[in-house]
């Protein structure tokens, strides 16, 4: 069953290749959606996929790319209608 989740990632997550690395991780898992920087320094990730893949992506988000320092990942449910095709960064 396809699910959608929105993740808000806090810490040193902007300017460290976080969005592009998230895109690579998501695409490898067959997840679609987007990753974007927020004005408050967090990264928002909207992900659509099966529950197992979303769980694996969430685990990855807690680490991120090598230069990132993740302090928290807040997860909320999202609508499956919110994700387009593929995985974008913006």
What tags apply to this protein structure?
single chain; alpha+beta; Alpha-Beta Plaits; 2 helices
Can you walk me through this structure?
It is globular, with a radius of gyration of 12 Å. Helices cover 24% and strands 41% of the residues. A hairpin with a 5-residue loop joins strand 2 and strand 3 (43-50). It has helices spanning 18-28, 51-61, and strands at 2-12, 32-37, 43-50, 69-77, 87-89. The termini are far apart. It has 90 residues and is α+β, with helices and mostly antiparallel strands. It has a 5-stranded mixed beta sheet with strand order 4-1-3-2-5. The protein is built from 2 helices and 5 strands, in the order βαββαββ. The protein has a single domain (2-82), classed as Alpha-Beta Plaits, CATH 3.30.70.100.
How would you summarize this macromolecular structure in one to three sentences?
This protein has about 90 residues and is of the alpha+beta class.
Helix content: 10-25%
For the sheet with most strands, the description reads:
5 strands, mixed
CATH topology descriptor: Alpha-Beta Plaits
Low-confidence stretches: none
What's the rounded overall pLDDT mean?
93
Number of domains: 1
* C-alpha-based Rg, rounded: 12 Å
CATH class: Alpha Beta
Topology:
Elements: E1 2-12, H1 18-28, E2 32-37, E3 43-50, H2 51-61, E4 69-77, E5 87-89
Parallel strand pairs: 2-5
Antiparallel strand pairs: 1-3, 1-4, 2-3
């Amino acid at each position: 069953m396809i699910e959608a989740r929105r993740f808000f990632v806090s810490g040193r997550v902007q300017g460290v290749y976080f969005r592009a690395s998230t895109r690579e991780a998501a695409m490898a898992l067959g997840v679609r959606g987007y990753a974007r920087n927020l004005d408050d320094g967090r990264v928002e990730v909207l992900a659509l996929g099966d529950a197992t893949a979303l769980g694996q992506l969430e685990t990855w988000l807690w680490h991120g790319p090598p230069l990132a320092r993740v302090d928290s990942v807040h997860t909320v449910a999202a609508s499956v209608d919110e994700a387009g095709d593929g995985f974008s960064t913006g």
